[in-house]
C-alpha cells in the first residue's frame, strides 16, 4: 500500500458534503511467487525512498502465532503532504497520520491490508483494503487488488483547492505501488535472492497439521464488492463467502479484471479510469438482466462522459434498452440491406489507416441522398447506418488482435466531390440529423478521425446545419481539405499509406465502394403507398401533395417577420408541366378557399388545391413578383431558396403551364398537341416541402448555393438569380 495515495484519493474525490466515493482497482499480476513478493513488500518499511512524503512509520501493535503462519502488525504512518503552506496553517497540521493493519497468512499465502486515516477523522473518513493472493491458475504468480471508500464531511471550505492539488498528483502516484515492488524485487536479485521458500509447519505441529502436506486449494483473486467494504466485512470473510469460479490465466481476453488485459485490449488507463470501468461493469453484472456489453464498449461510454460514472451509466442504460428494443445485436446476422442500398449507397470499408483503424470510405458527393430517402425511407437508411457501425465494432476487435494493440475506433474518409444543393434537400438533411442523433447516443467515441476531402463551396451550408448536432469531442476529430489540398503536406499521406489510397483520389488501389449515382424515380415510393405502411416517410408537416388545374393554381402563404430570413423549397413535378412563382404582399390575403371546380373535387390528402390571391388583386399594386417565373417540366425535381428582403407575406405559387403556339403560325405543334393529351383534364400534380430558416444559418453561404454543380444535377437554363432577392433554384432531371 502507498500511504500518500489515501490522502490524495480523498482529496481527488471531494465532491459534496456527506458523499461517499469509492475506488476499485483491477487485478494486478506479479509474475513472481507470493513469498518473494512479500520479501520485497517488507522492505518498504519503516520508510521508502520512492515515496518522499512517507516520512516514518512506527509499530504500535504486533502479533505472531506460535507456528509463525500468522503475522499481524499495526503501524502508525506519518505523511508530509505536498500542499500549500496556507492550507496546512488553516488546517492546523504539518503531517497527516494513517493507521495500517497488515494480516499475513503464510499458510493460505495471503496478505490483507486495512488502513484508515487518523488525522481529520471527524471531517474525512477514509477506508482502504488491499490484498495479495496467489493467482488462481498459476501458483507461482501473485495477484494484487485494492478498494477504497471516502466519506468527506467538510474541509475548512477549501474543498476545491484540495481537489485541484489531488488531480495533479494522484494519477502520477497511484501506480507507484507496482513500481516499488519491482524496485525491491530488483534489489533482492542484486543481493542474490531470487527464491524464498514457502512456509511449512514446524515438526512439533505436524500431527496437528497433517493435512498441510497436501496443498490446500488456493482462494481465487476476487473483486472486493463495494457493499462488503461498506458493511465492514474483512477480507477473509469475503474470500470465504465467495463462490465465484476461478478466472482464466492473466492476460487473456476473458480475464476482465486483469491489469495486463486492460493494457493489452483497452489501452493505458489511469487508476481512476480503471476503477470507473471495473465499478460500472460490476454494476451491470449485478443489475442488468440482458447481454452485458464488452469492456471496450463500456469504456467508450465512460470516455464520452469524461469518466463520470453516473452520467455514463445513464446513457449506457438507455443505449442497452434501445439495442434490445430494436434487436441491434442481431442486425448483422438477420438483416439484409435492400438492393437499392447495395447499388446506390456510395460507401464501404477499405483496408485500414496508419494507426490500424478500420477505414470507411463514403463518396457522399456521388450519392443521391434524396433518391435513397424517397426510395427507401428513413428506417431502412437508419438500419443500414447501424449495420455499418456494428461492422465497425467487429473490425475494431479484429484489428486489435491483428496489430497487437488496442483499436477502439475507426477512420472515415468522406469525398465531397459533386456535393451540391441536391444534398441540402431539407427532409434529407433532417433525416441525416436524426441518424446522427441515434449514432451519437449509441456509438460514442467510435470515430477516431474524419477526413473530409474536396469540400466544395456549398459545404459550409451543410456544415452549418449538421455541426450543432455533433458532439464537441467528435468535431475535434474532423480534418477538412478543399480542392486538391489533401494531396499536399499534412494531407492524406499523413494518415493513410500510399498503397491503399483509392483510385478515384489519384491512388493506385482499386476501391470496391459503389459509385452511387442517381436513383431511378421508378424506385420512388409514392405518398399513397406510404399511407398504408406502419412507418411513414412523409407526413403532412414535412412533404405535401397538391393538384394544379388550368385556371386554378396552388398557393402557399408564408409570413415573414424578420427581413433576410431564408425561404427554402423542394418540389417534384409528378404530372404535367407547371410554372413556379414567388410573390410578395404587404397585406395578408383573404383566408384560403378550396378549389370550387366540381369536376375536380379532390378528397384525398394528396390532392389539395388552395388559392390565395384574390381575383381583384392587381400585380404591381396589391402584390409584386420577386422572382422571374420558373418553368418546370414533368419529372423534374427543383430545390431552391430565397433570401427575403422585406417583412410581410410571401406566396409560393405552382401554376398550370400552357403549351406555347409555334412562332410562325397560330397552329399548335404536333409535339405540343401530344404533350397536352397526356395532361388529363388539364391537371398537374406536385409534391412539395417548404421551410423558413433564420438568415444566420446561411450567413456567408448564399454564393455557394448559386454556384453548385454535380455530375447528375444541373442548373436549369431557366433558373434566374435576382441580385435584390439573392435567390437560387436548381433543377435535377
Automatic annotation (TrEMBL):
<dbReference type="GO" id="GO:0039552">
    <property type="term" value="F:RIG-I binding"/>
</dbReference>
<dbReference type="Pfam" id="PF04707">
    <property type="entry name" value="PRELI"/>
</dbReference>
<keyword id="KW-0732">Signal</keyword>
<dbReference type="GO" id="GO:0005794">
    <property type="term" value="C:Golgi apparatus"/>
</dbReference>
<dbReference type="GO" id="GO:0045087">
    <property type="term" value="P:innate immune response"/>
</dbReference>
<dbReference type="Pfam" id="PF03765">
    <property type="entry name" value="CRAL_TRIO_N"/>
</dbReference>
<dbReference type="InterPro" id="IPR006797">
    <property type="entry name" value="PRELI/MSF1_dom"/>
</dbReference>
<comment type="subunit">
    <text>Interacts with RIGI (via tandem CARD domain); the interaction is direct. Interacts (via GOLD domain) with SLC18A3; the interaction is direct. Interacts with SLC5A7 (via GOLD domain); the interaction is direct.</text>
</comment>
<dbReference type="InterPro" id="IPR009038">
    <property type="entry name" value="GOLD_dom"/>
</dbReference>
<protein>
    <recommendedName>
        <fullName>SEC14-like protein 1</fullName>
    </recommendedName>
</protein>
<keyword id="KW-0391">Immunity</keyword>
<feature type="domain" description="CRAL-TRIO">
    <location>
        <begin position="337"/>
        <end position="513"/>
    </location>
</feature>
<feature type="region of interest" description="Disordered">
    <location>
        <begin position="206"/>
        <end position="228"/>
    </location>
</feature>
<dbReference type="InterPro" id="IPR036865">
    <property type="entry name" value="CRAL-TRIO_dom_sf"/>
</dbReference>
<dbReference type="InterPro" id="IPR036598">
    <property type="entry name" value="GOLD_dom_sf"/>
</dbReference>
<feature type="signal peptide">
    <location>
        <begin position="1"/>
        <end position="17"/>
    </location>
</feature>
<keyword id="KW-0963">Cytoplasm</keyword>
<dbReference type="InterPro" id="IPR051064">
    <property type="entry name" value="SEC14/CRAL-TRIO_domain"/>
</dbReference>
<keyword id="KW-0333">Golgi apparatus</keyword>
<dbReference type="InterPro" id="IPR036273">
    <property type="entry name" value="CRAL/TRIO_N_dom_sf"/>
</dbReference>
<feature type="domain" description="GOLD">
    <location>
        <begin position="539"/>
        <end position="692"/>
    </location>
</feature>
<dbReference type="InterPro" id="IPR011074">
    <property type="entry name" value="CRAL/TRIO_N_dom"/>
</dbReference>
<feature type="domain" description="PRELI/MSF1">
    <location>
        <begin position="21"/>
        <end position="193"/>
    </location>
</feature>
<comment type="function">
    <text>May play a role in innate immunity by inhibiting the antiviral RIG-I signaling pathway. In this pathway, functions as a negative regulator of RIGI, the cytoplasmic sensor of viral nucleic acids. Prevents the interaction of RIGI with MAVS/IPS1, an important step in signal propagation. May also regulate the SLC18A3 and SLC5A7 cholinergic transporters.</text>
</comment>
<dbReference type="GO" id="GO:0039536">
    <property type="term" value="P:negative regulation of RIG-I signaling pathway"/>
</dbReference>
<dbReference type="Pfam" id="PF00650">
    <property type="entry name" value="CRAL_TRIO"/>
</dbReference>
<keyword id="KW-0597">Phosphoprotein</keyword>
<keyword id="KW-0399">Innate immunity</keyword>
<dbReference type="GO" id="GO:0005829">
    <property type="term" value="C:cytosol"/>
</dbReference>
<keyword id="KW-0734">Signal transduction inhibitor</keyword>
<dbReference type="InterPro" id="IPR001251">
    <property type="entry name" value="CRAL-TRIO_dom"/>
</dbReference>
Amino acid at each position: 500500500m502507498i500511504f500518500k495515495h489515501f490522502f490524495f484519493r480523498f482529496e481527488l474525490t471531494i465532491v459534496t458534503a456527506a458523499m461517499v466515493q469509492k475506488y476499485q482497482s483491477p487485478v494486478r499480476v506479479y509474475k513472481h511467487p507470493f513469498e518473494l513478493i512479500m520479501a520485497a513488500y517488507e522492505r518498504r518499511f519503516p520508510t521508502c525512498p520512492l515515496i518522499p512524503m512517507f516520512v516514518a512509520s512506527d509499530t504500535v501493535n504486533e502479533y505472531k502465532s506460535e507456528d509463525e503462519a500468522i503475522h499481524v502488525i499495526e503501524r502508525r504512518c506519518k505523511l508530509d503532504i505536498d500542499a500549500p503552506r496556507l492550507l496546512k496553517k488553516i488546517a492546523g497540521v504539518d503531517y497527516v497520520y494513517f493507521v495500517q493493519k497488515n494480516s499475513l497468512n503464510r499458510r493460505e499465502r495471503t496478505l490483507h491490508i486495512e488502513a484508515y486515516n487518523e488525522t481529520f477523522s471527524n471531517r474525512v473518513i477514509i477506508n482502504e483494503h488491499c490484498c495479495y493472493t496467489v493467482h488462481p491458475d498459476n501458483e507461482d504468480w501473485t495477484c494484487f487488488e485494492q478498494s477504497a471508500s471516502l466519506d468527506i464531511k467538510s474541509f475548512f471550505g477549501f474543498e476545491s483547492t484540495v481537489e485541484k492539488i489531488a488531480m495533479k498528483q494522484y494519477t502520477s502516484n497511484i501506480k507507484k505501488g507496482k513500481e516499488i515492488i519491482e524496485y525491491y524485487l530488483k534489489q533482492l536479485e542484486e543481493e542474490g535472492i531470487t527464491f524464498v521458500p514457502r512456509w511449512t509447519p514446524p515438526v512439533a505441529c505436524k500431527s496437528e497439521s497433517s493435512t498441510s502436506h497436501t496443498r490446500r486449494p488456493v482462494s481465487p483473486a476476487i473483486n472486493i464488492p463495494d457493499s462488503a467494504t461498506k458493511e465492514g466485512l474483512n477480507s477473509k470473510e469475503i474470500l470465504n463467502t465467495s463462490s465465484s469460479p476461478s478466472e482464466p490465466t492473466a492476460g487473456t481476453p476473458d480475464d476482465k479484471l486483469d491489469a495486463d488485459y486492460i493494457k493489452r485490449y483497452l489501452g493505458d488507463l489511469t487508476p481512476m479510469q480503471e476503477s470507473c470501468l471495473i465499478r460500472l461493469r460490476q454494476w451491470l453484472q449485478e443489475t442488468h438482466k440482458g447481454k452485458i456489453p464488452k469492456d471496450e464498449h463500456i469504456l467508450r461510454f465512460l470516455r464520452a462522459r469524461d469518466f463520470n460514472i453516473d452520467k455514463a451509466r445513464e446513457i449506457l442504460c438507455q443505449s442497452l434498452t434501445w439495442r434490445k428494443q430494436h434487436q441491434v445485436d442481431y442486425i448483422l446476422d438477420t438483416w439484409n440491406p435492400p438492393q437499392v442500398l447495395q447499388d446506390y449507397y456510395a460507401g464501404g470499408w477499405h483496408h485500414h489507416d496508419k494507426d490500424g483503424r478500420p477505414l470507411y470510405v463514403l463518396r457522399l458527393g456521388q450519392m443521391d441522398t434524396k433518391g435513397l430517402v424517397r426510395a427507401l425511407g428513413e428506417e431502412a437508411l437508419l438500419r443500414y447506418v447501424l449495420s455499418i457501425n456494428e461492422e465497425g465494432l467487429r473490425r475494431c476487435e479484429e484489428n486489435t488482435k491483428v496489430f497487437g494493440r488496442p483499436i477502439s475506433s475507426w477512420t472515415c474518409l468522406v469525398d465531397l466531390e459533386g456535393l451540391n444543393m441536391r444534398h441540402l434537400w431539407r427532409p434529407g438533411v433532417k433525416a441525416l440529423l436524426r441518424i446522427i442523433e441515434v449514432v451519437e447516443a449509441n456509438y460514442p467515441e467510435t470515430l477516431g478521425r474524419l477526413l473530409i476531402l474536396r469540400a466544395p463551396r456549398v459545404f459550409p451550408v451543410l456544415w452549418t446545419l449538421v455541426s450543432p448536432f455533433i458532439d464537441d469531442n467528435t468535431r475535434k476529430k474532423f480534418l477538412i481539405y478543399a480542392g486538391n489540398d489533401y494531396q499536399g503536406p499534412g494531407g492524406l499521406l499523413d494518415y493513410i499509406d500510399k498503397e491503399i489510397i483509392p483510385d478515384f483520389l489519384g491512388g493506385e488501389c482499386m476501391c470496391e465502394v459503389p459509385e452511387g449515382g442517381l436513383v431511378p424515380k421508378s424506385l420512388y415510393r409514392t405518398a399513397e403507398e406510404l399511407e398504408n405502411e406502419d412507418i411513414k416517410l412523409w407526413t403532412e408537416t414535412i412533404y405535401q401533395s397538391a393538384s394544379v388545374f388550368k385556371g386554378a393554381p396552388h398557393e402557399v402563404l408564408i409570413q415573414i417577420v424578420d427581413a433576410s430570413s431564408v425561404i427554402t423549397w423542394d418540389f417534384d413535378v409528378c404530372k404535367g408541366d407547371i410554372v413556379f412563382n414567388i410573390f410578395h404582399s404587404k397585406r395578408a390575403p383573404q383566408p384560403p378557399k378550396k378549389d370550387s371546380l366540381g369536376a375536380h373535387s379532390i378528397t384525398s390528402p394528396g390532392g389539395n388545391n388552395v388559392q390565395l390571391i384574390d381575383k381583384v388583386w392587381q400585380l404591381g399594386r396589391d402584390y409584386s413578383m420577386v422572382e422571374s417565373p420558373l418553368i418546370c417540366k414533368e419529372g423534374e425535381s427543383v430545390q431552391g431558396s430565397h433570401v427575403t428582403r422585406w417583412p410581410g407575406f410571401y406566396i409560393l405559387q405552382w401554376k398550370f403551364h400552357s403549351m406555347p403556339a409555334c412562332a410562325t403560325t397560330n397552329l399548335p405543334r404536333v409535339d405540343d398537341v401530344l404533350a397536352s393529351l397526356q395532361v388529363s383534364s388539364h391537371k398537374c400534380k406536385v409534391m412539395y416541402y417548404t421551410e423558413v430558416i433564420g438568415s444566420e444559418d446561411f450567413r456567408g453561404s448564399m454564393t455557394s448555393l448559386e454556384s453548385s454543380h454535380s455530375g447528375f444535377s444541373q442548373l436549369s437554363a431557366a433558373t434566374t438569380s435576382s441580385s435584390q432577392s439573392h435567390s437560387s433554384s436548381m433543377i435535377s432531371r
